[in-house]
Amino acid sequence: MSWKIIEKYRAILACEEGVAPREWGGKLSVCLVYPNRYPIAMGNLGFQAVYRLLNDRADVVCERAFLPDPDDLREYEKSRTQLLSLESQRPLADFDVIAFSVSFENDYLNIPRIFYLAGIPPLSAERPGSAPLVMAGGAAMFLNPEPVADFMDLVCIGEAEAILPRLADLLGQRGDEDRREFLRKAAELPGIYVPALYEAVYDGARLASFTSLPGAPARVERVWSADLARDGAVSEILSPQSEFADMYLMEVSRGCPRGCRFCAAGFIYLPYRQRPLETLTAEVAKGLKVRGKIGLVGAAVSDYRGIGELCRHIRALGGKVSVSSLRIDALDDGMIDTLVESGHKTVALAPEGGSQRMRDLINKNLTEEQILAACDRLIGKDILNLKLYFIIGLPTESMADLEEMVRLVTKVRERVVATAKGNRRLGAIVLSVNPFVPKPFTPFQWCGMEEVAALEKKGAYLRKAFGRLPNVRLQMESPRDAYLQAFLARGDRRLANFVLRAADLGSWKRAAREFSVDADLLVHRGIPLDERLPWDVIAGGNRDRLLQEYRRAFGHKA
Questions:
Q1: Pick from 130, 228, 359, 552: CA 20 to 30 A from residue 558's CA?
Q2: Amino acid 557: pLDDT
Q3: pLDDT confidence bin for 424, thresholds 50/70/90
Q4: Under a CB-based contact definition with an 8 Å cutoff, are residues 124 and 134 in contact?
């Protein structure tokens, strides 16, 4: 046993606000695991919402575990201590259920590491009957769980508020029931996917067939909450060591009404839902008792119908406001004024497409005039630092589109510089540029990702072009990291061997070279519209609508 780990965990708990000790006696014990570091996990509202949902039940005790940071990892290995839960410092193997919350595909690589540290076989088929039941949920899981399906006994497809009550009831009734019999019962619940009850057959890179066994539905319906007044997520636990430690986070809406063709959030969280203003104002009063700043969370915060009124209410109570980014064509003067009063020196906008052709292709519905007008409004409010998000490598993109991006940024910079000179204060533009990654349940799911070499060439062009512009700074995600994300996002069950090998080697690049399927083909190929997709087992989107949007984007006839 490592007393250093135990002392560190107790010190973390002593700093947290909102955690009450729970007794284990006779309750279903669940260890909620985030396959990344503690600060990232505790900045995730979905993770916190699941923790609350489970601990609100009198018959459940839920604790947390995380991927250890490097120092803790060395201490675990040195002391040969199994991975411990945060609250009671118990080994994960002591719990009835291990529940992974997975938001991002790249975190799939950390899941075997969690199992190894816990002393539990990663593959479901190799775990003894005495091992904890292993389940998973989160956005990555209801996009495409197949790369890690062989690790999971069951997967939650959809939103936790709509799934967990019935699933927890069933888990509480399990007793000594055989695992396979229990999983057949679980598969009857809405939103529950039991990978062992499906058989896949492959033909090269293609999924030839995917068959459900008796007791399993042909497709698993994604479920969602219809009552965000009751179910909206807020900060349940506050920690000085978490991301966004200085603010109380509050979900204002779920999903996005815009339907950008590259963006999964606009499709997997349908229908778009907004929380009632009176619910949010009550949450503000609660949040301002513990933090001076309210962080508004949602894929489309500035689309919230009462955003100006909400921001003014927060300011009237003496609070500050923070938002991640603003919709260019939905700027509200009340919201901008509140951000200025809250001390915001930088505001993020997302043109996404660098040219008009690219913005039309992705259905962004923004013109250059609208982008410049939004910048003018912000600059006019003395916000002289702008962060602009762009995507490169979109289907059909050419160098001409990148040249138009450079011209657009140059025009924005001229506006910032002109105002900054008058105010005798420097302004700056930060460009966040990310390679396009095709995601399941979007109209672009059939498109391949551009070759890494081509993306690197485009990145070099942008660095050279923007390097000539003072006060403009370029941040670009590594094309190789984007390649990994695409590999995992588009993968099937055969990737389980890759994920395991990457954990063994400590290098996903080496594991990819050993992979039996052509990784480049999986990432870069365009998928025929009539081909079966690994994630088709999930009835999570309207395929006809996705096809229609794909055809609209590329001018194909229906």
A1: 359
A2: 45
A3: low
A4: yes
DSSP-derived 3-state class of residue 292: coil
Q: Which fold is adopted by the domain 246-343?
A: Transcription Regulator spoIIAA (3.30.750)
The answer to whether 260 and 361 have CB atoms below 8 angstroms apart is no
Query: Does the model's pTM come out above 0.85?
Result: yes
Task: Print burial letters for 313-338: b (CB count within 10 Å at least 16), e (below 16).
Answer: bbbeeebbbbbebbbbbebbeebbeb
Q: Number of C-alpha atoms within 13 angstroms, CB side, residue 408?
A: 29
pLDDT, residue 335, reads: 85
**How large a percentage of the chain has pLDDT more than 90?**
87
Handedness of CA 86, 87, 90, 92 (dihedral sign): negative
Rounded to an integer, what distance in angstroms lies between the CA atom of residue 259 and that of residue 264?
Answer: 9
Concatenate the DSSP letters of all residues of 207-274 into one string. Answer: EEEEEEPTTS-SSEEPB--S-HHHH--B--SB-TTSTTTTSEEEE-EES-SS--TT-THHHHTPSPEE
Supply the CATH classification number for the domain 3-221: 3.40.50.280
> Could you report the per-residue pLDDT of 119-166, keeping only the tens digit for each?
999 999 999 999 999 999 999 999 999 999 999 999 999 999 999 999
**508 phi/psi in degrees, rounded to 5:** -75, -25
Beta bridge partners of 368: none
Q: Yes or no: say if 546 and 267 are a contact pair by the CB < 8 Å rule.
A: yes
- Is the per-residue pLDDT at 421 higher than 80? no
- For the segment 12-29, the average pLDDT, to the nearest whole number, is 91
Alpha-carbon distance of 451 to 438, in angstroms, equals 13
CB 284 within 8 A of CB 317: yes
Ordered by start, the domain boundaries in the chain are 3-221, 246-343
Nearest to 431 by CA among 339, 354, 516, 511: 354
Query: pLDDT value at position 77?
Result: 86
